[in-house]
Amino acid sequence: MILTQENYYSKEANEEYLSVSQYKDFCGSVGRLGCEEQALAKIRGDYEMETTTSLLVGSYVDAHFEGTLNIFQAQHPEIFTKSGTLKAEYRKAEEIINRIEKDELFMKFMSGEKQKIFTGELFGAKWKVKLDSYLPGICITDLKVMKSLREAHYARDIGLMDFVRYWGYDIQAAVYQEIVRINTGEKLPFFIAAASKEKEPDIEIIQIPQEWMDDCLSGMEMNVKKIIALKDGEIDPIRCEMCDWCKRTKVLKNPIYPDMLIGEI
Ligand SMILES: [Zn+2]
């Protein structure tokens, strides 16, 4: 199928194409364990992630820069109070937008083509990517609104870590760069245009080191082969027994010991 802004997130598109968020659903990132069964349930439409206020604030800022804020506001009446004013969280989103718009460099990185879709074959799978800001021949930029940009996340066996690697944004950078290269022949640098939701919003343009992207890509092939087999129903998915999907669908079989309660992250 040909992907458009209208069908990009459809069930059909998710079945036919692999995306970075699907990949992370299957394989996880440092900060979140993957769950094959939940990933498949999401693709089938049996499971939908809860839309939290925190996610919606990010989407609000995204929609502003895409130029689709009117549509977003119409689709999410819950962001307004009964008297028709924006709820506090979304006034915060407005504050973040105003802070970003005061910064020339940030706006330069966000000045590319918005929500540009590319598809391409990588490791035997058809991928879809959607770029927040694409400046052909110059760079790819992804807008992220985070709780904090400087908070160090703890990962077992690794120690403290920046939000970029903790949430697997290096994986996103690697795939986006490669799919753009396959389409255009240009290997472009990848930047995260980041803003925080703190009382005083913080902003940064963060370049993802090329070695990180190279490392990510070189470790993906086996995982992608497995995801293809899972999506084709050739092998059975493994349950993580930790996520909301596994909690909802679990059937107790026997008692456990306390040391089995602590997971890998
Ligand atoms: Zn699970």
Automatic annotation (TrEMBL):
Classification via InterPro entries: PDDEXK-like_dom_sf, Put_RecE_PDDEXK-like_dom
Family annotation (Pfam families): DUF3799
GO MF annotations for this entry?
hydrolase activity
Q: Does the keyword Hydrolase apply?
A: yes
Q: Native species of this protein?
A: Sellimonas intestinalis
Q: Which residues form the Putative exodeoxyribonuclease 8 PDDEXK-like domain?
A: 19-249
Q: Which UniProt keywords apply?
A: Hydrolase
Protein name, entry field: Putative exodeoxyribonuclease 8 PDDEXK-like domain-containing protein
Q: Which residues form a coiled coil?
A: none
> Do the record's keywords include Phosphoprotein?
no
Domain of life, per UniProt, equals Bacteria
